[in-house]
Amino acid sequence: MSSEAKSGLQALLTPEESVVVLIDHQPFQFANLNSHEPTMVVNNVVGLARAAKVFDVPTVLTTVLEERGGYLIKGLQDVFPEQKPIDRTFINTWEDERVVDAVKATGRKKLIIAGLWTEICVAMPAIQAAGEGFEVFVVTDASGGASKEAHEMAVRRMVQAGVVPITWQAVAGEWQRDWAREKTYPGMTEVLLQHGGATGVAFGWETQLLASARSGEAS
Question: GO MF annotations for this entry (predicted)?
């Protein structure tokens, strides 16, 4: 199990320490996704991927048996059009040396995982990587299982192994950390507007109010 801090400021995510692995967001996996509304998982994983791109967080895409399970969903592939997903035969992503080597090449130890299905293709690599010294975070709302119970039991099992469950907006919020960070503010806002649900609506409203206030001051 990772010996990294589980509390205090050092336990929070930073872009500089993070690496993301997105596992098997493919048609076959979505066909038996019953723990979540599939469109929400699509929205959330694309939001997570776009946030990773805003913050220059290395992101590894991977599929399993692509010829049978289908290509990575278009919305996700479109975020990284130049990247060809690593196509595996291993059920456990962490047993594929290409994936592990890609993660280790970044030199980063805060490993953020999302995938389908939670109970198999997420839990296996998360538990193994946690045992190998990585500080592992699983994005639960960008993942999903064959049933609600399967998803929930997988999350419980991973927590017992030292894995941290988190949601995609929490990841993005920890990366941004301070709204005075102007470099990433526009990109982060755009991601929230398009993928943040009610949060995006609130951001749009706030933008409207600020624009109205500035207009009033100018007149």
Answer: hydrolase activity
Q: Are 86 and 62 in contact (CB under 8 A)?
A: yes
Q: In what order do the strands lie in the sheet with 135-139?
A: 86-88, 59-64, 18-23, 110-115, 135-139, 164-166
> Does the pLDDT at position 65 exceed 90?
yes
Residue 6: per-residue pLDDT = 78
Contacts of 43 (CB under 8 A, 6+ apart): 195, 197
Catalytic, 110? Answer no
Domain covering 16-176: architecture: 3-Layer(aba) Sandwich (3.40)
**DSSP 8-state code for residue 143:** -
- Which helix (DSSP H) or strand (DSSP E) does residue 168 occupy? helix 168-176
For 146-167, what is the mean pLDDT?
98
Give the closest residue to 59 by CA, choosing from 97, 114, 7, 4.
114
Q: Which of 76, 103, 121, 163 is catalytic?
A: 121
Q: What is the mean pLDDT of residues 42-64?
A: 98
Could you tell me where in the chain the CATH 3.40.50.850 domains are found? Answer: 16-176
- Among positive and negative, which fits the CA dihedral 36, 81, 21, 179? negative
What lies within 8 Å, CB to CB, of 183 at 6+ separation is none
Decide: helix, strand or coil at residue 184: coil
- 3-state SS class at 98: helix
Phi-psi region of 12 (alpha: psi -120 to 50; beta: other; left: phi over 0): beta
CA distance 120 to 113: 13
